[in-house]
Amino acid sequence: MTVELEAPAIDIRSLAKSYGDTLAVNNLSVEIPKGSIFGLLGTNGAGKTTTFKCALGLARATSGQVMFGGYPLAPPMFESISYMPERPALYEWMTGAQHIECARRTFANFDLPRALELANLFSLDLRKRVRTLSKGQQSAMALTLAFATHPNILVLDEPSSGLDPLHQRHVLDLMIDAAAGGATVLFSSHQIGQVERAADRVAILHRGELVLQGVVEDIKAQEKIVEATFDGDAPRFSELDANPNVRRVMRQGRLIRAYIRGAGDGVVAVIQAASPTSVRVLDQNLEDIFLVAVGGN
Amino acid sequence: MPAIFTVDPHTGVPIYLQLIEQVKRSVALGVLAPGERLPTVKQLAIDLTINPNTVARAYRELERDGVIETNVGRGSFVSHNGASARAAGALSLVASSAVDAAVREAKSMGLKRTQVRELFAQALERWYAPDEPKEHKNS
Predict the structure, then answer these.
(1) How many domains does chain A have?
(2) How far is A177 from chain B (nearest CA, A)?
């Protein structure tokens, strides 16, 4: 076992941001260890982009702190952090090649052969002006620039939006390759399947509040459904409503479903006592867990 | 080298557990021989498009179970000392939990004991040749 003595690559402490009367992010605390791929999930307007912007000092947090490797963000760190905003920050009138040249002159650690390799991977025509590129190609251009500096920290706001499935897979491969080399990746995505593959940690935001966070594999091992059927209508179980490990209970005719956290033995025993015709414990994938966490339906 | 393992990230079963089971299965069946080198954490993560820390976690547990050994700088190898026997033991656990789940499912559908027995007899009929002994050892 390795002991984590290192400060987290990104440490977000009690972050809050309000725009006028609207609280975009409320008291958010997450630690992102070095070398991890951290997926931020949430419905539109959940506060993902605001979190990124506040973390990187692009928006002023109302309160809270963000530390990088134990220190507040400072100009010398800019070289080693790559940020890809939701809408790529590219100049419409410039070509891909001009963007690469511009980045090469700006960043000391810009790797030109790597940039050309990445552009090729994404099938980009660097002679084209950004204005003429599709949304997906613009994402690819921004990704090319983001990865070509071999950053220690990557903050990617919906990196694969607009990309076809093949190029989406390339984005995951790049993130995995970077993390295997010790870089830290913080990204948001609406494609839960991608987060499920690439991320080792996840946080789910809902209306600015953190509703669930942790190691993806542990969350999957913990979040279960106990499903039971009865001869007649499923009874109500007041014991379940009082149980803090029961996230929610759904009754429909002869069927009852309890969404639980941790070992379901207690819940199974409670239901079993009412002599159901069947009881089973079901696994949940990340999408199921997400939908329960944000209270869909 | 094509990936010798496959995982399904979109199930409720943690990926590292899927990997552990597959490595043990490969070792028990002799697909991976003692002393054989496993892909590096990075290589396997990239081949399967899964998180490197997830692969590292699977390797750590396999090491703890004595199925593989890791030499810093040289990589991970299938253990020589009884790894296949231990892996085979682990596999029989997998088999027993699969049978257990099948019976539980049948019961929850309201099948009677005799009906379940009949289903098992049919399955044995389908998968085992008539003269084949019902228990056989993998070398």
Answers:
(1) 2
(2) 7
Domain interval for residue A284:
221-293
Look at residue A204 in the predicted model and tell me its pLDDT.
95
A152, A262: one domain = no
By C-alpha distance, the chain A residue nearest B101 is A280
**The pLDDT of residue B3:** 56
Which of A132-136, A173-177, A203-207, B21-25 shows the lowest per-residue confidence on average (mean pLDDT)? Answer: B21-25
* Residue A225 and residue A203 share a domain: no
Instruction: Please identify, among A184, A207, A230, the residue that sits at the C-terminal boundary of a domain.
Output: A207
Q: Quote the ipTM score.
A: 0.85
Position B105 in a domain: no
What's the number of domains chain B is made of? 1
Residue pLDDT, tens place only, A71-128: 999 988 988 999 999 888 899 999 999 999 999 999 999 999 999 999 999 999 999 9
Residue B63 lies in a domain: yes
Q: Is residue B67 part of a domain?
A: yes
Mean pLDDT across chain B: 83
* Confidence at residue A1, expressed as pLDDT on a 0 to 100 scale: 47
Q: What is the CATH number of the domain that holds A241?
A: 3.30.70
Nearest CA-CA partner of B16 in B27, B25, B8, B4:
B8
Query: Chain A: which residues have CB within 8 Å of chain B?
Result: 1, 35-37, 169, 172-173, 176-177, 179-181, 193, 196-200, 216-218, 220-221, 223-224, 229, 277-280, 282-288
Amino acid residing at A251: R
Query: How far is Cα A41 from Cα A46, in angstroms, rounded to an integer?
Result: 8
- Chain B hits for A285, CB-CB cut-off 8 Å, are 10-12
The number of beta carbons lying within 10 Å of the beta carbon of residue A236 is 12
Min Cα–Cα distance to chain B from A209, Å = 25
Identify whether the C-beta of residue A111 lies closer than 8 Å to the C-beta of residue A149. yes
Q: What are phi and psi of A10, to 5 degrees?
A: -135, 130
Q: Please state the pTM of the whole predicted model.
A: 0.86
A73 and A166 co-located in one domain: yes
Domain end residue (candidates: A183, A207, A231): A207
**Residues A56 and A180 placed together within one structural domain of the fold:** yes
Output phi, psi for B46, to 5 deg: -70, -40
CB half-sphere exposure, A162, CA atoms < 13 A: 18
pLDDT in tens, B58-92: 999 999 988 899 888 888 999 887 666 676 777 77
User: What is the C-alpha separation between B46 and B49, in angstroms, rounded?
Assistant: 5
In a domain, B31, yes or no: yes
